[in-house]
Structure formats: C-alpha cells, structure tokens
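Dear V.,

Thank you for sending over the compound details. I've combined the ligand you provided, zinc ion, with the protein sequence from our construct and run the structure prediction for the complex. I'm sharing the raw inputs here so there's no ambiguity about protonation or stereochemistry in the SMILES, which I know was a concern on your side last time.
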Amino acid sequence: MTAKIKEFPGVGLRESDFTERKVLFTEWKPDARYAWDAGVAIGRYLAELKEGRIIGVRCHHCRRTVVPPRIFCEWCFRPMDEWVYLEDHGVVNTFSICYVQWDMERLEEPLIPAVIEIAGASKGVGILHLLGEVDPREVKIGMKVKAVWKPAAERIGAITDIRYFKPIN
Ligand SMILES: [Zn+2]
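Below is the predicted structure of the protein with zinc ion bound, written out as structure tokens.
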C-alpha cells in the first residue's frame, strides 16, 4: 500500500524554519572518540593471531573445542573451561567462488571464501576465511589447507593477520 505525503497530517519543515530558528537544532559537531572492546574471548583470539597462533576454547561438559573462542558454551549454558592452542591448518568445510565483491564490482580474479575446520577444534567447527594460491576449479570440500600468515611485523591482531589459507598435501 502506498500513500501520498499529502495524506498525512502536519506540515513539513521549510528551510526558513531553520534560519528563523523556529525549530531546535545545533551546528555543534561532537568530537566523540570511542574505543571498541572485543571482549575477553575475542580479545585473546586477536592477540594470539598477532603472535601467529590460533586459539580456541574447550567445554569439559560437552567436550567441544570451538574457534573463534567464546566465554560461554552455547550448548551447555556454562562458562568455557580451558584455552586451547589449535593448529594453523585444517580442512575446507564449505566454500563459495565469488566473482563480484561487496559493492557488486565484478572481479577479474574470483575470491574464494571458505569455512575452514581448524585442526584441534571439534568436527564441523571452523572459521570463515579466504582460500588462496589455488585454482577455483580445484577447490573441494575436505581439501587440506594451511594458513599463510603476514610477516610478524605487519600483524595487528586481526583475522587479516592470516592472508588466506592455501592447499597442502
Ligand atoms: Zn558445552
């Protein structure tokens, strides 16, 4: 259902309402500065990525090891018990071959986002990242892949400290 503006009661604002100060407004531009806290679990995860390590957490109740880490086990509704260092390799759980980027710009070289089950985490648990150094036609579910890290001096504590995952034999 569509409605014309005229059908709504009231009067629209005019430019003169601002210049004649008939409405409250301000030209004050707040200098708002803020910091974003990643929280305990993701904060540690990002700090470990900066050191070239992948860390997860284990729940002793359901015996799952998950990555990225979280403070509470969403299956058991209880705090996680233990930090666990994981391998920087794993297998492709699922993937996509993207020929357009986020703004619908066409890509000459496709991106290959994939969910990678990280070795040491529970079956089916993984992280979303990109695959690289691989022909898109060669990508398969179950393919073994390894992290390609940025040099230590370039890492900032972000998931992009891993450039991509590449196939290994
Ligand atoms: Zn659990």
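A first observation: The mean pLDDT is 92.

Warm regards,
I. M.
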